[in-house]
């Protein structure tokens, strides 16, 4: 195509009125302007256009005319726009980036039949703003789509926008949320109307509520809402805090359990202090209940007495509450609803029983109103036992749900054993030191035949002393005729709890022996009730025993427990006796107060095994072996016992007073 460009010289007199008019118009325009003819060739351009698109853009001017560079540049940037405008004879706008100057330009093309006039503006700043806005919108969209928190946009009636996290939180595809109200998902316990009112009045609102998904599951959410982000449109951000709240509750429960454990350990220390200080049973029980009730972990505590014959539980001690046991239904009868709760079940089974939510536990129904009145949610009943003897039941309540679980349950359950052991020790002490005792004579008819033992008609065996080694093992020392001892050896093989018999000495036609017994039923029952065997013997196959108990012992329970093991047991005599207070008895009393258990065992075993005889029937090593301790330990205990024995003989007590004890 022939180049018919016509340069405009703005500094020369052309005489052409049209050119002058165009030149003046171009001069008055601050933006770049250029004109195209019908062949879309650039025929005129103002100074700004030549500066942008001509050689001036590269730093070399060509006067006022339209140079080839200007024509080529405008064609490359806006050529398509020129064609569209001219062909359509409608204004057309286009944008292009000019690499030479590093700027964005907008060309507004105004056509007529003779060509196209193009107005060019620098829109770089606007493009930058648009790009920034686009980038910002892209980031906002990315945040909206990728946010872990649920984001909802809408009004009171419907949701108009929701991100994927919202669909996951509410349990629906997010497209299914559109058109639904958030109120449909809010739990009934949340006051939605008040929340909307507060949001509209304040403009912002924070809080939490529970949402209910279509599948029925609940989630706890914290929300941050902004009203009228657009007129009538509100923004809500919901964060699922269900797991965090659960962890918080677990942490609170752990802290409460640790505090409770610390409190229980304090109770144990107070019980031990009371034992060391020589407290009686009533004081021990009072200390236990008061220590539990004073703890912030528990509401109140009580100890009840148990009468198996009448299936009744009666008051002994209470703390933190008054007249509780006497005013509620309690029983040990499994057929009675009042006997199927923690207390009755603990007594029947001999194991700790708990109700960690008394309002959900069906067996606790008889006491629910009582629980509401006194403010407890969990309850525990711990049998107070020692060696299978029941001394009562300890009841504890707590306002905490699930209070008696894990370590706390284990530790508080030990209170029954600690109290039972302490009460049993007190009972034994009362027997040893009491001014008055109950003496019980029993006979087990055909005791040897009970174990399919050898014929013992005309034979007698005397058991002189019983020494308790530990909770299960006893050593019994006795004598019999030399011709009877083989029969005793045979009987040892037949009686399950007789572990072995050893002859310690044989002289004058008699054998002194040691019998190892493992958990003996009869002796174990006597020991469990705090008594001791005064004497025992086998005569013509019958077993006769005389035992002493404190005056507060329920002898009928003792006899019942022995009869359960040996049905052919009969009571020969039951009487109250006053032990002799001769000097020897006083010596025994003082020794019982000063000797430790191991010193007592060492002294009794050494004496019974003939350690003090000459020649000795047993060496120190043999006695130590029987005690299952080292010889050095045995001699240490024995020397300490001998020192206390000599001291008791040679140094009378500073004061002498009547002993006073409380009946349990």
From TrEMBL:
PROSITE patterns (alphabetical): PAS
Task: Write out the GO biological process terms.
Answer: regulation of DNA-templated transcription
Q: Which UniProt keywords apply?
A: Transcription, Transcription regulation
Where do the record's region annotations for Disordered lie?
Answer: 1-20
Query: Keyword Acyltransferase, does the record have it?
Result: no
What the entry lists under Gene3D superfamilies is as follows: 3.30.450.40, PAS domain
Tell me which Pfam families the record gives.
Answer: BAT, GAF_2, HTH_10, PAS, PAS_4
> Does Transcription regulation show up as a keyword for this record?
yes
What CDD domains does the record tag this protein with? PAS (cd00130)
* Residue ranges constituting the PAS domain according to the UniProt record: 136-189
Q: What is this protein called?
A: GAF domain-containing protein
**Record organism:** Natronorubrum aibiense
């Amino acid at each position: 195509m022939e180049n018919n460009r016509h340069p405009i010289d703005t500094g020369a007199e052309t005489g052409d009125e049209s050119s002058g008019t165009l030149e003046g118009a171009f001069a008055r325009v601050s933006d770049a302007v250029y004109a195209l003819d019908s062949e879309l060739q650039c025929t005129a351009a103002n100074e700004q256009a030549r500066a942008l698109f001509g050689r001036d853009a590269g730093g070399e001017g060509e006067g006022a005319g339209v140079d080839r560079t200007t024509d080529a540049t405008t064609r490359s940037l806006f050529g398509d726009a020129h064609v569209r405008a001219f062909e359509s004879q409608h204004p057309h706008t286009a944008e292009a980036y000019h690499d030479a100057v590093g700027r964005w330009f907008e060309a507004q093309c105004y056509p007529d039949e003779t060509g196209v006039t193009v107005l060019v503006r620098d829109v770089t700043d606007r493009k930058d703003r648009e790009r920034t806005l686009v980038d910002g919108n892209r980031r906002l969209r990315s945040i909206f789509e990728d946010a872990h928190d649920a984001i909802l946009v809408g009004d009171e009636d419907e949701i108009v926008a929701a991100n994927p996290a919202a669909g996951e939180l509410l349990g629906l595809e997010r497209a299914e949320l559109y058109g639904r109200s958030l109120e449909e998902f809010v739990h009934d316990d949340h006051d939605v109307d008040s929340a909307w009112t507060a949001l509209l009045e304040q403009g912002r609102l924070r809080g939490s509520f529970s949402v209910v998904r279509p599948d029925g599951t609940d989630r706890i959410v914290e929300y941050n809402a902004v009203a009228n982000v657009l007129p009538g449109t509100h923004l809500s951000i919901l964060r699922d805090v269900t797991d965090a709240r659960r962890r918080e509750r677990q942490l609170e429960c752990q802290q409460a359990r640790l505090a409770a454990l610390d409190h229980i350990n304090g109770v144990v220390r107070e019980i031990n202090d009371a034992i060391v200080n020589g407290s009686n049973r009533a004081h021990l029980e009072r200390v236990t209940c008061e220590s539990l009730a004073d703890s912030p972990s528990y509401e109140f505590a009580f100890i009840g007495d148990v009468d198996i014959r009448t299936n009744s539980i009666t008051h002994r001690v209470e703390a933190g509450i008054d007249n509780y046991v006497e005013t509620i239904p309690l029983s040990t009868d499994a057929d009675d609803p009042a006997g199927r709760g923690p207390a009755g079940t603990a007594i029947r089974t001999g194991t700790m029983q708990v109700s960690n939510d008394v309002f959900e536990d069906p067996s606790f129904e008889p006491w629910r109103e009582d629980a509401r009145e006194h403010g407890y949610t969990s309850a525990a009943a711990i049998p107070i036992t020692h060696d299978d003897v029941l001394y009562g039941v300890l009841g504890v309540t707590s306002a905490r749900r699930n209070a008696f679980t894990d370590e706390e349950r284990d530790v508080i359950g030990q209170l029954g054993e600690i109290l039972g052991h302490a009460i049993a020790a007190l009972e034994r002490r009362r027997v040893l030191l009491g001014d008055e005792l109950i003496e019980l004579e029993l006979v087990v008819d055909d005791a040897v035949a009970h174990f399919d033992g050898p014929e013992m008609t005309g034979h007698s065996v005397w058991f002189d002393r019983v020494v308790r080694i530990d909770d299960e093992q006893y050593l019994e020392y006795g004598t019999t005729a030399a011709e009877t001892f083989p029969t005793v050896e045979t009987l040892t093989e037949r009686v399950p709890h007789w572990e072995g018999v050893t002859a310690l000495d044989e002289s004058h036609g008699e054998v002194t022996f040691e019998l190892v017994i493992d958990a003996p039923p009869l002796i174990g029952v006597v020991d469990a009730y705090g008594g001791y065997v005064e004497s025992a013997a086998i005569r013509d196959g019958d077993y006769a025993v005389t035992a002493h108990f404190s005056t507060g012992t329920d002898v009928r329970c003792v006899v019942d427990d022995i009869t359960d093991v040996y049905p052919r047991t009969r009571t020969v005599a039951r009487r109250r006796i006053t032990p002799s207070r001769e000097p020897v008895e006083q010596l025994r009393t003082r020794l019982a107060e000063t000797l430790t258990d191991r010193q007592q065992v060492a002294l009794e075993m050494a004496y019974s095994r003939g350690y003090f005889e000459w020649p000795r029937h047993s060496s120190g090593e043999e006695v130590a072996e029987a005690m299952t301790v080292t010889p050095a330990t045995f001699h240490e205990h024995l020397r300490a016992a001998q020192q206390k024995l000599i001291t008791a003989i040679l140094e009378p007590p500073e004061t002498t007073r009547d002993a006073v004890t409380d009946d349990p």
